[in-house]
Structure formats: structure tokens, C-alpha cells
Design a protein that fits this description.
The complex is a heterodimer of chains A (about 270) and B (about 250).
Chain A (H helix, E strand, L loop, with lengths): L3 E2 L2 E2 H16 L2 H26 L3 H5 L3 H28 L3 H5 L5 H31 L8 H28 L5 H5 L19 H7 L3 H15 L4 H32 L8
Antiparallel strand pairs in A: 1-2
Chain B lengths: L4 E12 L2 E12 L3 E6 L5 H9 L6 E6 L2 E2 L4 H4 L3 E4 L11 H11 L5 H12 L14 H13 L5 E5 L7 H18 L2 E5 L3 H7 L2 E6 L2 E6 L1 H8 L4 H10 L2 H10 L1
Parallel strand pairs in B: 3-8, 3-9, 6-7, 7-8
Antiparallel strand pairs in B: 1-2, 1-4, 4-5, 9-10
Classes of the chains: A mainly alpha (about 270), B alpha/beta (about 250).
């Protein structure tokens, strides 16, 4: 059965997902890699939280704040990285030429990267969140439905950065691949993951409020410390995410066209 | 677009800054025939093929493939064409069968398992189906790449060095396969090759490229007669080095 909407083919998106499923299911090293670093980080932040809980009333009042921050920040980072790595797999294997002489459209290719971004992240972060429950008696799921909103918001921002980074690597070649690992960290100091936005200097606070993660992590803080769900912060994040998603997609398409003008689609690889 | 041509190219130019890779070529590839692009390294063959496939945007000119304007409606032509090139590869970690399944799905091939079995039998790599693509020898990779190029039974096949890395016996067998594919499906094949024997055997028409231009064209027999040579390799060398009758012909053209 054909599943096309205005020429957008879900069947071709499915073909790309099948390609990544074959890759992941055939490599236990890749599967372990999805869990390894988040697990190491979670254990480290868990012990740090336990130590700090005995030292400060702020942490004692909301044990898990640092763990929740770590798990959610890592979700954003993993989504962005997974989008970029799914793209890089095609460059490493010199497969872009084969893909783009097939009927696959750039928008379908981008959609498959987004699905892989969230799939790879969930494969890594769900086990890690369960480990946090087991090791430190902290369940991130205690945030209830708000967690879904926080995760969706961070996923969207991760998608936006991942698409822009993928486009940049396509345009500039594998020499720019390190950007894939570094891009999200540009936002870490202003995302209010481990401290509130109010700690930042005034001008940097204004910069921080231009990006969705500050809204999300202030929302997490309000929920875990004050027990308040801040719908205003959630809506602010979603509005900004719509903007950044659109910018990320437009950047990807513009960089794809630029790569096509420069002949970058044929023969890139290791 | 002519009913009799699978490809029509007009005033095609590709410049990278100050460097001109393709300098205003015009040609047509008749439906159901095999046309060869011949030329030395840097002559513009791969650049031309990349523009025909839509992988590279021309600086100017027009390209019509199977009736579709490749600059505006490449989505109409792409399902009916395919290609193989040493400049691209299949994902190394996937097995041959997995790779072909993915491309069968991309091209919406009906009954993909049957098609893959058919190609594996025709190209003699049944024993390799469960092997990772990255573990294949160069010759095996060429055969699998050819299977990928035939997966959707294309009406138009663009091949860059289709028998590169194959031993003479296998290369000859692959040429036979391409001939029979063209005959049975009335398919059109455009190939770029450095192998003169291959071009003489397969091509109905040869386009000779040099420095981004088509400097001569015709059947292999026409070219041999025109340059007074016994084989295409000497014609190629005459044109590449501007010697013999090529010098006079090129001076006349200028």
C-alpha cells in the first residue's frame, strides 16, 4: 500500500529506518554505546547528589534535581548526537550518492534522521532512568505527564541542532564532523541545567531566555523544588522550539542545495 | 523532449569558481542504445554523469532525462533510473542482502526477496548474500553495486567504470549481462569507461570528452575510420595528446 502525502513517501522513510535498524541490531557495540556514557554520568551525578544532600538543605529538599538535570540534558545531547551520527553513517560509508539518486527526497531523509534521533536516545536513556531508580531510588517518572512535555521539548531542540549540524557536515565535509559532538554543549552554560538562570549575568540571562532549554530546566526546578507545574515555561519552550525546528530544517535544506552545487554529494567518505 | 532520446543535454556548463569542469556540452542519448563517454582523467565525464543524476547542480544549461527536466522535476525520472560508480559505496556493516532490501524498499520494488534472489543468481553472488558489504573483495563489490543498480529494473542505467576491478573473464561476463539487459528491457545505458575494448564492444555511440568539452562523437567504427586507426585506444591517445589526425581535426574545428 502506498503511503504518500504530497509526494512525501513514508515507505521511503521506512526504508531508511530499516537501514538503521539493520545497523543497530547487527552491532552490540553500537547498542552498548547508546547506554554506556549516560550510565556512567548518571552514576557519577547520583553519588554527587547523595553527598550534597547531606551537606545542603536545597539538595536535601529536592534530591534528584541534579540527576533529573543530567538525565534530561543528556536526552537533548543524545537526540542531537543521534541525528548527526545517523547522518554521518551515510558519509562514513560513502552512501550519500546512492541515496540521492534514488527517489529518496531530502525531506524524507531528514525525517528518518529525526526518528532515529529519538529512537536511539530512548534506547539509551530509558535503561539509564531505570538504573537511577534502582541505584538511587530516584524515579524521573515521578514528574508524571510533565516529563513527557519536558522530553518532547528537549527532543525538538535536539532535532533542530542535529539537522543544522548534519547540513553543515554535508556542506563542509567530514573535516567538520567534530561539530556533531560539540554543538549541544554550546548551550549547556545557559540552559539552567544545574543552576538557575538568575545566577547568570543580566545580559547572559537575556541570551538564555532565547533558547528552549532554559524554559525546560527552570520548569523542572519549579516542579521538583516547589512542586509547581509552570505552564508558561512549557508554552514558551514549545513556541521557541517551533521556531528552531523550522530554522533547523531550512538550514538543512539550504546546506543540502549548497552541497549539491559544490559536488559534495558524490564521493565523500573516510 | 524527443520521443527517441532518453537523455537530452543542452549547453551544459559546470564551473567551480574560476575552474570550468564542463564547458557547454550538447548531446542526446537515444533510447534503447548504449552510449559511452570516453576521456582522460579530469575530462568532465564524472561531472557530466553527476549532473545527469541530479547529484550536482549545473551552472547553466538544461538536462532532460526520460522526459523530465532534471533541474525541476527529477523526482519523475529517478524511480526509472539507477547508477553505479566507484565513487560511492554501500554501507559496510550491512550484509549484501540487507543493503539490497533497503534499496528495494527505496525504489518500491514489488516482491523484493524474489528480485534479490534473481539478481544474486544472475550476477553470481548467492554465496555472498549474508556477508557484510565491507568484507567483499573489489570485484565482488562491483558485482553487488551492479545488482543495486539493476534492483528497480531501470529504463536508464548510468554506469561509471562498470567493470573496474574485475578480472578479464568476469568483466567480459558482465558486459554480456549488460548487453542482454539492454536487449531484453529495451533499456538505455550511458557508461563512462577507460576500457577501450569495453567501449568498442558495447557502445553504439561514443562521446569523446576533453577538457570539459565533447571533441568528437560517433560510432566506434566511424571514429576508427575518421582517425585512420585500428583501435579506439589510439584514437583516445590521438585526441588526448592532440596528435595525428586529431590535431588536424581539432585545428579545423577551431
Amino acid at each position: 500500500m502506498s503511503m504518500d502525502i504530497l509526494g512525501f513517501s513514508f515507505n521511503r522513510v521506512g526504508a531508511m529506518l530499516l537501514r538503521h535498524w539493520f545497523l543497530l541490531s547487527g552491532s552490540w557495540v553500537r547498542l552498548i554505546d547508546l547506554v554506556y556514557w549516560p550510565a556512567v554520568q548518571m552514576i557519577m551525578w547520583g553519588f554527587l547528589s547523595r553527598f550534597l544532600a547531606g551537606q545542603t538543605s536545597y539538595i536535601a529538599q529536592a534530591f534528584g534535581l541534579l540527576l533529573a538535570g543530567m538525565i534530561l540534558w543528556d536526552s537533548l545531547f543524545r537526540v542531537q548526537l543521534s541525528v548527526a551520527i545517523s547522518f554521518l553513517e551515510e558519509m562514513w560509508s560513502r552512501n550519500l550518492g546512492n541515496l540521492f539518486v534514488s527517489p529518496l527526497r531530502p525531506s524524507e531523509f531528514a525525517a528518518s534522521l529525526l526518528v532515529m534521533g529519538v529512537t536511539r536516545t530512548l534506547l539509551g536513556m530509558v535503561p539509564v532512568s531505570l538504573m537511577a531508580w534502582w541505584f538511587f531510588d530516584f524515579s524521573i517518572y515521578s514528574m508524571g505527564l510533565a516529563l513527557a512535555g519536558f522530553f518532547a521539548s528537549l527532543t525538538m531542540f535536539g532535532w533542530a541542532i542535529g539537522l543544522a549540524v548534519s547540513g553543515l557536515v554535508m556542506r563542509q565535509g567530514l573535516g567538520a564532523e567534530n561539530i556533531a559532538w560539540a554543538a549541544a554543549f554550546l548551550f549547556l552554560p545557559i540552559s539552567a541545567v544545574y543552576y538557575p538562570v538568575s545566577v547568570l549575568p543580566g545580559w547572559l540571562q537575556m541570551v538564555a531566555w532565547c533558547f528552549p532549554p532554559a524554559y525546560v530546566f527552570e520548569g523542572v526546578r519549579a516542579l521538583l523544588v516547589d512542586g509547581t507545574f509552570r505552564a508558561d515555561l512549557m508554552l514558551g519552550a514549545l513556541g521557541l522550539n517551533a521556531l528552531y525546528m523550522a530554522l533547523g530544517f531550512l538550514a538543512f535544506m539550504a546546506l543540502f542545495e549548497s552541497a549539491r552545487r559544490r559536488g559534495q554529494l558524490l564521493g565523500q567518505g573516510e | 523532449m524527443s520521443e527517441i532520446n532518453a537523455i537530452e543535454v543542452r549547453d551544459l556548463v559546470k564551473r567551480y569558481g574560476q575552474v570550468t569542469a564542463v564547458a557547454g556540452v550538447n548531446f542526446a542519448v537515444p533510447k534503447g542504445g548504449i552510449t559511452a563517454l570516453l576521456g582522460g582523467n579530469g575530462a568532465g565525464k564524472t561531472t557530466t554523469i553527476a549532473m545527469l543524476l541530479g547529484l550536482l547542480t549545473p551552472t547553466s544549461g538544461s538536462i532532460s532525462v526520460l522526459g523530465a527536466d532534471m533541474l525541476r522535476e527529477r523526482g519523475k525520472a529517478l524511480p526509472r533510473m539507477n547508477f553505479s560508480s566507484p565513487y560511492v559505496d554501500l554501507p559496510h556493516r550491512l550484509t549484501v542482502r540487507q543493503n539490497l532490501r533497503v534499496f528495494a524498499k527505496l525504489y518500491a520494488v514489488p516482491r523484493p526477496a524474489e528480485r534479490i534472489a534473481e539478481l544474486a543468481a544472475a550476477l553470481g553472488f548467492e554465496a555472498l548474500l549474508e556477508r557484510p558489504a565491507g568484507a567483499l573483495s573489489a570485484g565482488q563489490k562491483t558485482r553487488v553495486a551492479l545488482a543495486k543498480a539493476l534492483i528497480n529494473k531501470p529504463d536508464l542505467l548510468l554506469l561509471d567504470e562498470p567493470t573496474a576491478s574485475l578480472d578479464p573473464d568476469t568483466a567480459d561476463w558482465v558486459r554480456g549481462l549488460l548487453e542482454s539487459y539492454r536487449r531484453e528491457r529495451q533499456a538505455t545505458i550511458l557508461l563512462a569507461s577507460h576500457n577501450m575494448a569495453e567501449v568498442e564492444r558495447l557502445a553504439d555511440m561514443v562521446l569523446m570528452m576533453k577538457q570539459g568539452q565533447i571533441v568528437d562523437r560517433g560510432s566506434a567504427a566511424d571514429l576508427l575510420a575518421r582517425y585512420g586507426r585500428d583501435d579506439l585506444e589510439d584514437v583516445f591517445l590521438d585526441i588526448a595528446r592532440g596528435r595525428g589526425k586529431a590535431a588536424a581535426l581539432q585545428a579545423g574545428a577551431a
